[in-house]
């Protein structure tokens, strides 16, 4: 399942710079999976003794007085990233974000870091980190601004490694990065423990995530209604127009929007549901909310897009034959009957500890190679 690197338990702690996606602060409740992932990676690497500096948007959470982690803000908290329809505004926004990332990289070069984790969606780290050992983590399908940079570099920069979150997503990137590694996302399974049997509410479904068209919230509502289920929705409204036009008019006593919830509240919503609906209408690179549901023992019904089949496997839920209401409704009916113990066993294959160990081993490899290069 995971890429294996030689473990070096005797190595000294590393000084690690982490470049975050700059659209949102890195703090709970998280704007999305990338923000949650970044926070967990920084916290876990600090817990393993490394010194970590997170370059992020202002307002990102600090890691406590006794932590080995710190935050360096490179973009004001009040700067709003928007989906502008016109090219002029988009270009201006790119210039602002690119400038912020460039300033982060200048600070990295001045900061005597051993290694860098690029956890952003910016093309700038692919252009400006030459000579610095870097692990690039690719969380999305290929982005034009990044592939445009990669296309100009037939050979990757010395000391750079690339990893993505699923084999499905890797296939899309390999035209530019043939030796792309796969390190699946992982979660803290202890924090998503299953609910008691007497707390599971028959006839209920849950859906969590960013409320945007590509996440298919409207499809989840339609498929739940087709099965007569009560549906609870939770997550940030990242496309207000979509929410107002398609989601809000569908809310009633059967379909409720619970808001943007913290983890404890999310766990209660998911663990008490009879089934979890995952409805991506794009090539979902991984699906953290799907994994969180499985870690609660809640079987998943999913559309057949992206990494859904790879993540759910044969026991975590049911992947629909088609990405439409009828297909998803059928998957829901099948998923309800799955054994929750089997779902939990599937989730156990995606631990956060294993993910962090894989990152750490890759970082030690990069640092060792750089040290050897200096000796030569």
UniProtKB/TrEMBL annotation:
**Entry keyword Lyase:** no
Query: Origin, by domain of life?
Result: Bacteria
Against InterPro entries, the record matches this protein to: Glyco_trans_4-like_N
A single GO molecular function, which one?
glycosyltransferase activity
Domain Glycosyltransferase subfamily 4-like N-terminal per the UniProt entry, residue ranges: 32-191
A Pfam family found in this protein is: Glyco_transf_4
The UniProt keywords, alphabetically, are: Glycosyltransferase, Transferase
| Protein name as annotated | Glycosyl transferase
Q: Which organism is it from?
A: Glutamicibacter soli
């Amino acid at each position: 399942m995971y890429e294996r690197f030689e473990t070096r338990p005797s190595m000294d702690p590393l000084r690690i710079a982490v470049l975050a996606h700059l659209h949102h602060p890195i703090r709970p409740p998280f704007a999305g999976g990338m923000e949650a992932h970044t926070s967990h990676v920084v916290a876990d690497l600090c817990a393993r003794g490394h010194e970590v500096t997170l370059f992020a948007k202002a307002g990102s959470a600090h890691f406590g007085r006794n932590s080995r982690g710190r935050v360096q803000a490179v973009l004001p908290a009040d700067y709003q990233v928007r989906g502008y329809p016109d090219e002029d505004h988009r270009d201006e926004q790119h210039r602002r974000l690119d400038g912020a990332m460039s300033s982060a990289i200048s600070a990295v070069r001045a900061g005597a870091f051993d290694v860098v984790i690029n956890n952003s969606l910016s093309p700038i780290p692919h252009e400006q980190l030459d000579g610095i050992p870097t692990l690039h983590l690719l969380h999305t399908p290929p982005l034009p601004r990044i592939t445009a940079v990669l296309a100009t570099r037939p050979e990757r920069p010395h000391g750079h490694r690339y990893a993505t979150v699923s084999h499905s997503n890797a296939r899309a990137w390999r035209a530019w990065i043939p030796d792309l590694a796969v390190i699946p996302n992982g979660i803290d399974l202890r924090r998503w423990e299953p609910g008691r049997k007497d707390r599971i509410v028959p006839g209920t479904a849950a859906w969590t995530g960013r409320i945007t068209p590509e996440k298919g919230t409207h499809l989840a509502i339609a498929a739940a209604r087709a099965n007569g289920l009560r549906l609870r929705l939770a997550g940030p409204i990242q496309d207000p127009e979509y929410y107002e036009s398609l989601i809000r008019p569908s809310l009633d006593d059967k379909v409720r929007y619970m808001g943007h919830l913290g983890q404890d509240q999310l766990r209660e919503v998911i663990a008490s549901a009879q089934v979890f609906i995952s409805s991506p209408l794009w090539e979902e690179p991984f699906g953290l909310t799907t994994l969180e549901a499985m870690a609660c023992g809640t079987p998943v019904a999913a559309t057949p897009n992206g990494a859904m089949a790879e993540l759910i496997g044969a026991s975590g839920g049911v992947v629909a034959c088609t990405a439409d209401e009828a297909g998803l409704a059928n998957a829901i009916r099948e998923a309800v009957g799955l054994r929750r113990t089997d779902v939990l066993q599937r989730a156990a294959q995606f631990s956060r500890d294993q993910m962090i160990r894989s990152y750490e081993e890759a970082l030690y490899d990069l640092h060792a190679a750089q040290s050897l290069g200096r000796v030569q």
